[in-house]
């Protein structure tokens, strides 16, 4: 038993199924669940579990101390994972959801304090109906940073997360100290088209998104096995929310190139 009502079953193929039944007294409404993948040379898959709510829970292992909590920004909840120490860095995940705490998180957390939110609707917390575009989500995260009073932060955005970061910078580049965008969406390419996430399987989209999977750390441990029903459902939920935010125009903002022209002096 991991926590009240929560159990984990290890399958013969190495996959894990988590099941949860709400306590009758209503004391727990849900859980944040984070899988920490084994590093090279390790054999242990660590499962971090914390009750949803306003109280943060800290988990410690031989790697980074992790703090999982739900914070509220203007009445909208967001699951936030924090780890490391040093100058703060905001990490924004891509359109298929948050993959978990990986080895590069541990490396960066040696001298940075990482803030890793799971976008509302992409994980343990429901979507916010008022967030109906990527620009809305960017405004939400800008307010989160202001209310946390962290000062200018670094930001790393992956794909959809890169688009969110670009929208944030276009609105107020002063909130960032440095910006790193990894294969960002948000701009329509001068040649060709943006790959359509919604006409292929999530697996095909992932395979097409990585130039050389064999040279990409942890790709095999994340996606090397046949997907479980739970993984399929998580991907489909993320794709549905991505469609709601970025369906038309598809995965780009026609005004963003002009808006980004006003960004000055931000190291990228």
From TrEMBL:
Gene3D superfamilies for this protein: alpha/beta hydrolase (3.40.50.1820), Immunoglobulins (2.60.40.10)
InterPro entries: AB_hydrolase_1, AB_hydrolase_fold, FN3_dom, FN3_sf, Ig-like_fold
UniProt superkingdom: Eukaryota
Coiled coil: none
All residue ranges annotated as the AB hydrolase-1 domain in the record: 100-243
Family matches, as Pfam families: Abhydrolase_6
Name of the protein in its database record: AB hydrolase-1 domain-containing protein
Species this chain originates from: Geodia barretti
């Amino acid at each position: 038993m991991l926590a009240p009502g929560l159990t984990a079953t290890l399958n013969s193929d190495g996959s894990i199924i988590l099941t949860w039944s709400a306590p009758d007294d209503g004391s727990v409404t849900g859980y944040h669940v984070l899988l920490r993948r084994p590093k090279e040379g390790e054999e242990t898959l660590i499962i971090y579990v914390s009750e949803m709510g306003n109280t943060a829970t800290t988990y410690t292992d031989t790697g980074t101390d992790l703090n999982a909590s739900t914070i509220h920004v203007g009445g909208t909840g967001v699951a936030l994972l924090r780890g490391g120490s040093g100058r703060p860095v905001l990490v924004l995940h891509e359109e298929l959801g948050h993959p978990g705490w990986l080895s590069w998180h541990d490396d960066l957390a040696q001298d940075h304090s990482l803030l890793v939110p799971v976008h509302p609707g992409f994980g343990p917390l429901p979507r916010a109906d008022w967030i109906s575009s990527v620009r809305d989500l960017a405004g939400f995260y800008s307010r989160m940073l202001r209310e946390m009073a962290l000062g200018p932060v670094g930001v790393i955005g992956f794909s959809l997360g890169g688009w969110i970061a670009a929208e944030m910078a276009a609105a107020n580049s002063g909130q960032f100290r440095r910006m790193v965008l990894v294969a960002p969406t948000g701009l329509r390419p001068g040649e060709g088209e943006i790959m359509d996430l919604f006409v292929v399987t999530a697996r095909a989209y992932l395979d097409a998104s990585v130039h050389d999977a064999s040279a990409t750390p942890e790709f095999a441990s994340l996606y090397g096995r046949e997907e479980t029903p739970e993984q399929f459902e998580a991907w489909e939920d993320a794709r549905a929310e991505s469609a709601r935010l970025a369906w038309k125009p598809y995965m780009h903002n026609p005004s963003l190139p002009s808006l980004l022209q006003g960004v000055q002096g931000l190291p990228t």
